[in-house]
Amino acid sequence: MFKNIEDSQVSITELMLPSHSNFSGKIHGGHILNLMDQIAFACASKHSGHYCVTASVNRVDFLNPIEVGELVTLKASVNFTGNTSMVVGLRVESENIQSGEKKHCNSSYFTMVAKDANGNNAKVPGIILNTVDSVRRFARSIARQEQSKHRTSKYNSTQFKIDDYLEIVKQHNVMIDL
Q: Looking at the keywords, is tRNA processing present (predicted)?
């Protein structure tokens, strides 16, 4: 079974309130991460027809601050489908209500896994790739998966060799006191 990507796309807009701000008066990153997880869940669940859980988040860079009083819009779309998992692409934008200025605040990729009523992984429908962008996003997700398979274990505490890294570490803002 295959579904159109557009059928599970989700968008939400929320007004940023003072209760969402951090000590510097900007919207707290944790609040945005919470909203991102919610919309990724909604998109993945809509696509799969199952309850979904977050398996991983691929890099979140906060590009622009979000101010109290701005509208934040989050957009989610399934970029990739495996057997039981989906990669949901997210985009976060803020809008100043008075000036109309819009800012791209961050983009990220959430890997979501579908679960059946017993908590077991559930098969998900594939997606229909019908645009150049959809093929590009799917291919990029495959590449990201391949990159994650090649993560190194040389920094694992049982395999780490300090002598290989002391000179590199000394080039940075650090004092070594072993």
A: no
